[in-house]
Fold:
Amino acid sequence: MAKKPDARPNVSKDDLLKYYREMLLIRRFEEKAGQLYGMGLIGGFCHLYIGQEAVVVGLEAATKEGDKRVTSYRDHGHMLACGMDPKGVMAELTGRIGGYSKGKGGSMHMFSKEKHFYGGHGIVGAQVPLGAGLAFADKYLGNDNVTFTYFGDGAANQGQVYETYNMAELWQLPVIFVIENNGYAMGTSVKRSTKSTTYFGRGLAYGIPGEQVDGMDVLAVKAAGEKAIAHCRAGNGPYILEMMTYRYRGHSMSDPAKYRTREEVEKIKTEKDCIEHVRDLLTQGGLASDEELKAIDKEIKAIVNESAEFAKESPEPDLSELWTDITV
Amino acid sequence: MATEILMPALSPTMEEGTLAKWLVKEGDTVKSGQILAEIETDKATMEFEAVDEGVVGKILVAEGTAGVKVNTPIAVLVEEGETVSDAPAPAAVAAVAVAAEVPVASPAVVAAPASAPVAAKGWPHSDLPEGPTKTMTVREALREAMAEEMRADPTVFLMGEEVGEYQGAYKISQGLLDEFGPRRVVDTPITEMGFAGIGVGASWGGLKPIVEFMTFNFSMQAMDHIINSAAKTLYMSGGQMGSPMVFRGPNGAAARVGAQHSQDFAAWYAAIPGMRVCMPYSAADAKGLLKTAIRDPNPVVFLENEILYGRSFEVPTDPDFTVPFGKASILRAGSDVTIVSFGIGCAHALAAAEVLAKEGIEAEVVNLRTLRPIDYDTVLASVMKTNRCVTVEEGFPVGSIGDHIASTIMQRAFDHLDAPVITCTGKDVPMPYAANLEKFALITPAEVVTAVKSVCYR
Structure:
């Protein structure tokens, strides 16, 4: 994991405040989702992104309009980071008509064609060829869009990932494979999953360059994202980014987390937290006052509360919705 | 000692072929392994090598001859100094006789010569619109449908194993690479799950992929993407985005390829909401349904049949001809019993109907054409008229399409039935390799005849 960052990296105050705001939105949103789950307002599986916020916020900061993204079931952070409305996301979690999928998708299955967010996939690893397919379409259509295909260290052992690496390089597809290595595939640690723990290097057999990135440092993530995007947009084919990150909460809401110690989690929270990192950059560098940051905290809290209210008040889908959207 | 060289079987389904070119002439000395001739099969043009050494004594079948049956003597090989007259003449007659027996021994329709217009002629296609037609094979019809749709819509492309440079493992995509280039006719590595997923992703990205499975047996590797990724996304996205694409390829038993390569997935795929499932019988079905499938905004599973690829049928020449989904056709009108089938099952049903007609039983043969949606109305109307029903399919008996049809008839036309519906299916066994066992495992016209007589109490 990363060292403490320099006190004054080459980044503007506005950018730092933007990252702070976006990461904080994800964290507060997820905390609220956990709360609503405990109240029985959210059902089924609910996988929280808390701890990993720097990955999506850093990478989204490197994208342009037209770029696409697709991910696994731990998807709330990705949706907020690409600009989807927190109200629509939260209402989908509560299974209401105001949700992005009219309540028919749920936490794991949400899409926004407008924001080029292609899900939300519940089958571990399935999003990897799907993302390459989105990139295939962009290459076929002759534009310079890039697709971010996110998956975890658990999915990284699925066979279809390597089928996809092979074809993505063979056809020089503009796809960035982002492995969010949070150390645990559900309850199985990386070391108990594989002897080959350097996931970023697994593309080399197919000719795909890759690098490992401190996924708790939003600036490092953004820099790596820019490098990967430049590689893809220049027509050089795919790129692999392994983001070293950590999830603070369990795999899902029902995870007792017996596979790791409380001390391990606390140590990361204390030493590596991605939001505290940016907060330190802002305050220690004299770029923002505590009051300024508190105002942002308040603003974010209001947005999240508003989304929760909307998600509670939005009605359940009409029973007729059972029979719609099956075929066109 | 003279040796006869026999027309070889160069594919599992080949029963005859064209002797395209001789590469040796009479009097030439040949070594084992030397290429003797080029032979065109139902799938490709193949080189035919000598097994024995000797001198080409006589060429019995001239190059350019089409329809040469497997096991027909095509040349005589003699030893140095020998002449052809030394060859035992009766042997050639015997070989021909053996070859001629093969179709008789097999189920009549299944073993019919690949290029002969067997099933189509003599039965009216009530579904064909007025207007001129031309005779073409199912293979040509599929190719024409893809080519026409690719010309009309630049976002349509074909991907799969051997679709391009090889010209298609079953020659369905022959010539498409030449016309459309490698951007639109994409050869994939052997990686069904991966390229099926890439195809689904491409459909979300604005393209209309045709994903070819070399056979649907291999689609099991890709089933997660067909069902979980393609079929469910429209619903899971609240109607925002679906998967406009086609998964196509041969399905069901071919001939002598054993358990892992002989399986009908019709009932499996038809069980899944969010998809269309087509299973054409004739060339007109194939062309009209495939064009509809490519234009359809939903994921379509398009189940072809290798045995049918070489069969010829009449197809409308109207460039706008298509076959709508959810509309069955009546292949043969009749008043005594309804036989409901689809795909190659229709060939068995029609063959049975011929036999039954001679015994005074007039069967109405309904070709479902699409299994999702199913045209219940046509089936029910026919059953309400005939009061008896037999279903015919190649798939396994448990949870078959026939089961579903029988259940629907029971629920919606019970009072019209004069006998229980009988479902004719393949046997409940993995497909055996041995020729006699394979024949026994498949549904045959004879079994259909027996079932019909049973529901007619005859």
User: Anything to note?
Assistant: DSSP finds 13 helices and 22 strands in chain B. Chain B has a mean pLDDT of 90.
